[in-house]
Amino acid sequence: MSDEHEGLEVVEFSDVEELRNWLTTAGTAHPGVWVRLRRASSSVPSITFRDLLVEGIAHGWSESTRHGCDDDSYLQKFTPRRSRGTASQRNLGIVRELDSQGRLTEEGRRALDL
């Protein structure tokens, strides 16, 4: 697999802590990436789509397009949130959960217009 897909870098995270550290370093000025997520049947350690969603909300990032990659994985486009706020009930529930746990970062608050 190439290290780039449609002009953005392809990255992979084996656990949530690695993703969290990357998001802290990347900040919200980053152009975005494609995250390679392993399927549940894979034996390779990987974060899940839910991990990506939750940590993205916490740090002001958003997942969007999904592309197939191979039998073992797929690519999920992941970029800093471009619009303010969220109308999704799923995301609002995650925001409440993150906020109550003290895990919603200032970047996340700004991106969600909180």
Q: How would you describe what is shown here?
A:
The chain has one domain. The protein is globular, with a radius of gyration of 14 Å. It is built from four helices and five strands. A hairpin with a 2-residue loop joins strand 4 and strand 5. With 114 residues, it is α+β, with helices and mostly antiparallel strands. The model has no long low-confidence stretch (mean pLDDT 92). A five-stranded mixed sheet has the order 1-2-3-5-4, covered by helices on one side.
Strand order of the largest sheet: 1-2-3-5-4
β-strand number: 5
What coarse outline follows from CA principal-axis ratios?
globular
Mean pLDDT: 92
Number of self-contained structural domains: 1
The percentage of residues in β strands lies in: 25-35%
| Class computed from helices, strands and strand pairing | alpha+beta
How would you spell out the order of helices and strands? EEHEHEEHH
Name the poorly predicted regions. Answer: none
* Ends distance: 39 Å
Structure summary:
By secondary structure, this protein is α+β, with helices and mostly antiparallel strands.
Helices and strands in order:
Blueprint lengths: L3 E2 L2 E4 L4 H11 L6 E6 L10 H11 L1 E10 L2 E8 L8 H12 L5 H6 L3
Parallel strand pairs: 2-3
Antiparallel strand pairs: 1-2, 3-5, 4-5
Helix pairs in contact: 1-2, 2-3
